[in-house]
Amino acid sequence: MKSPESMVRLVEELRKLPGVGPKTAGRLALYIIGMDSESVTGLADAMVAAKQKMHACPRCYNLTDEDICGICSEDGREKGMICVVEGPEDVIALERMGEYNGLYHVLGGNISPMDGTGPEDVRLRELLERLKEGNITEVILATDPDVEGEATSMYIARLIDSSGIKVTRLARGLPVGGDLEYAAEVTLARAMEGRRKL
């Protein structure tokens, strides 16, 4: 039986989402079609509004819909500590853990020569500018524990080695080849507590 064109288009659009295969896309499409019109409109409006309003924070490059993100503008944060992560999903994972109270710096990727991504393709220059402000005492390198994440961390550590700023790396406990966003809160908490100086 041939599926209706509007159903096929919805499934195709849903398949573009990460981690959504054809079966999941089909189930999601059927669920959306079964929703009442008001809920579908609300979902569509929320997606459009998020796309239009979200942008990178000019300080840490995390996603926000405000001038400065809520983390950078929060008074109770430890302003002398910056946790360097690859993407906004890593900030979400670390915040969910509830054990870290410092600031962040989102690189927007990692150094991966095999993929054509060099140091100039991530926000290293912006990180170094933040460190020149003089109030940072520790940089925690929380890139993914894979080859690219390790290379990125080692590169950053060498860049700021002579600055007098303490440089630490999340402790093992995170699986090699894994992503921060999929790690359990307990695993992240142990990795944060056991971070070590590079």
Report on the structure:
The chain is an alpha/beta fold. The protein folds into 2 domains: 5-53, Helicase, Ruva Protein, domain 3, CATH 1.10.8.420; 63-197, 3-Layer(aba) Sandwich (Dna Topoisomerase Vi A Subunit, Chain: A, domain 2), CATH 3.40.1360.10. It is built from 8 helices and 7 strands. It has a 5-stranded mixed sheet with strand order 4-3-5-6-7. It has a two-stranded antiparallel ribbon with strand order 1-2. Helix 1 crosses helix 2 (22-34) and helix 5 (88-97) crosses helix 8. The protein starts with a helix and ends with a strand. The model has no long low-confidence stretch (mean pLDDT 90).
Per CATH, what is the topology of the largest domain? Answer: Dna Topoisomerase Vi A Subunit, Chain: A, domain 2
* Total number of strands: 7
* Helix-residue proportion: 40-55%
Structural class: alpha/beta
CATH top level label of the largest domain: Alpha Beta
Q: Approximately what portion of the residues adopt beta-strand conformation?
A: 5-15%
Mean pLDDT over the residues = 90
Please tell me the CATH architecture of the largest domain by its name: 3-Layer(aba) Sandwich
Distance between the first and last residues' Cα: 60 Å
Instruction: Domain count, please report it.
Output: 2
> Radius of gyration, rounded?
20 Å
Main β-sheet description: 5 strands, mixed
**In one word, what is the shape?**
elongated
Order of helices and strands: HHHEEHEHEHEHEHE
Total helical elements: 8
Return residue spans where pLDDT drops below 50 for at least 5 consecutive residues: none
Q: How are the strands of the largest sheet arranged? A: 4-3-5-6-7
